[in-house]
Amino acid sequence: MSEKLGKHTTAVHAGGVIDRSVGGVTTPIHTASSYLYFDEREIGYPRYGTTPTQKAAAEKIAALEGGERGFVAGSGMGVISTTLLTFLSAGDHLVIQRGVYGGTHHLVASMLPRLGIQVDFVDAGKADDMAAAMKPNTKAVYFETPTNPLLDVVDIAKVAEIAKAHGAFSIIDNTFATPVNQTPLALGVDVVLHSGTKYLGGHSDLNCGAAVMRAELMERFEDTFHCTGPTLNVYDAYLLERSLKTLALRVERHNAGALKLAEFLEAHPKIEGVFYPGLASHPGHAVAAKQMSGFGGMLSLELKGDAKTARRVVDSLELFHHAVSLGGVESLVCFPALTSHEKMSAEERRAAGVSDTLVRVSVGIEDAEDLIKDWGQALDTL
Ligand SMILES: *Cc1c(COP(=O)(O)O)cnc(C)c1O
């Protein structure tokens, strides 16, 4: 079939391999790390990501993002570090959003200057700031949207346009939105990256990453990857390909549950404020509505009261686990001040808008009514 398929159809069918010798309808796990020389076939080798099981997962994520080529790796940081090493060299300049994932921030701030790469952190939501940061040697622009933990929204097409006007690559980490809610390549971005550990895996039992880009860029990426080598083993590649089949199904449910919970919390007298791009009150709502087909499963909130009050509510929740990470079928809560933003000083955290009482919520796929009831009873304990 040549016409464009829907997201659910793509999630189920793209990249899947049927082994005709046995006829099973799921992609087999090919464990070999050595392959025969025969025919004209590409030789499989796990570190190159060229075994059939790895290729199946890579093709599925590429199809979902609407990109030419995909690659799967052993972690999100594996693809992020490999991408930066691919497109930046000594003497180049990188413009990067201040609020990116903590691990990315640490990598960029601590390692790139050592390699002779200049870095400027900016507020990517302000197109003027971003354009003003561009220099003649700017090689790449790197950003996320929505961001962690305040769900700030960045205009993807605008960032891609600024990068293009300066001859720089645009690179986005699409972990929070997933290709079900937004497809940045269609908006002009060059490279899409994922921590597959979150929604792509979706069951909190997998550590992996993925990259999608056009073929000519992927050749360069693969050349670096063959040297850096953060491989995804075939067992986990299988699990990723299997999990991706339900990505659209899961994300649509995450979207619906998060919107309902956000609306409930926003109207609750004990809540000071809710950050969710799907709420009309969110400053990024208009841009989000333009570039996203759903608003995602992540939200954060401020309670009325101090850190002790917030801790009491979190401890009173019964269905929400107090745990790190996000994007799984089960609902989670955490305090970003104690997790993702723990390495920052109190001052830096304040500047980033991350208070000690801010609670981040990863809304799972449970019944929204149950999740709302759970928050209701936890808030009643105050
Ligand atoms: C978790 C995360 C990462 C890092 O991914 P790993 O799979 O843990 O290496 C990168 N970006 C975002 C937005 C994340 O949430």
Structure description:
The structure is a single chain. With 382 residues, the chain is an alpha/beta fold. It contains 14 helices and twelve strands. A seven-stranded mixed β-sheet has the order 1-7-6-5-4-2-3, sandwiched between helices. Strands 8-9-12-11-10 form a five-stranded mixed β-sheet, with helices on one face. Helix 6 (156-165) links the parallel strand 4 and strand 5. It is globular. The N and C termini lie far apart (57 Å). The structure holds pyridoxal-5'-phosphate. The site of pyridoxal-5'-phosphate (PLP) has 16 residues, from helix 3 and helix 4. Pyridoxal-5'-phosphate binds at residues 75-77, 101, 103-104, 144, 148, 173, 175-176, 195, 197-198, 207, 209.
Secondary structure blueprint with pairings:
Blueprint: H1 7-13, H2 52-65, E1 69-73, H3 76-87, E2 93-97, H4 102-111, E3 118-122, H5 127-133, E4 138-144, H6 156-165, E5 169-173, H7 178-181, E6 191-195, E7 209-213, H8 215-228, H9 234-244, H10 247-266, E8 271-275, H11 285-291, E9 298-303, H12 307-316, E10 321-322, E11 332-334, H13 346-351, E12 359-362, H14 368-380
Parallel strand pairs: 2-3, 2-4, 4-5, 5-6, 10-11
Antiparallel strand pairs: 1-7, 6-7, 8-9, 9-12, 11-12
Helix pairs in contact: 1-2, 2-9, 3-8, 10-14, 12-14
The structure holds pyridoxal-5'-phosphate.
